[in-house]
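Researcher: Let's continue the batch. This sequence belongs to Ribosome-recycling factor, and it's 188 residues. Same format as the previous ones, please.
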Amino acid sequence: MEEYMFDTNPYEEKMNAAFGFFQDELKKVRTGRAHAGMLDGVMVEAYGTKMPLNQVANITAPEAQMLLVTPFDPGNITAITSAIRDNQSLGFNPSDDGRVVRVPVPALTEERRRQLVKQVSEKVEEARIAMRNIRQDALKDAKRMKDAKELSEDDLKLVEKEVDSLMSKMQAQIDEAFKAKEKDVLTV
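Model: Same format as before. Here are the structure tokens for Ribosome-recycling factor:
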């Protein structure tokens, strides 16, 4: 009896990595509620170097439309306020009282919400394409092994079944993440 020699684990790992990337991409899409992650891309000029905001301040969302940024060193407050204001992609207008920076997060317009859902849909499509490519690689590698007589026809069928079941699991996770994010974006 020939030992079944095809390992689907590397492909599962690749799928999980692609799903992780997809989740990180989703986090970057704004929702109607304020959350600390909104300021992830902000770099602050502090101590003569550019640093991520979360390394020079604590960021909280005490209410749905407000972010509160508390500098670890009050000497950096002006630089922090400027860095947030100068980040065009955010479009925020922060103010500070010398101790904390308040960042009002404007509610999303209906049109903006639709744009964001479209953005999320595009990320879903990218994730699906990544999954399909990984699936094709796995099947191609298995077929190559069958042609080289390292796998039997039955083994190949087992591999296809296993890879397809992985695919279904990933698709379900992508759909779930999409629905949750869409709900977040559309919730006022």
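Researcher: Any comment?
Model: Residues 36-104 form a domain with the Gyrase A; domain 2 fold (CATH 3.30.1360.40).
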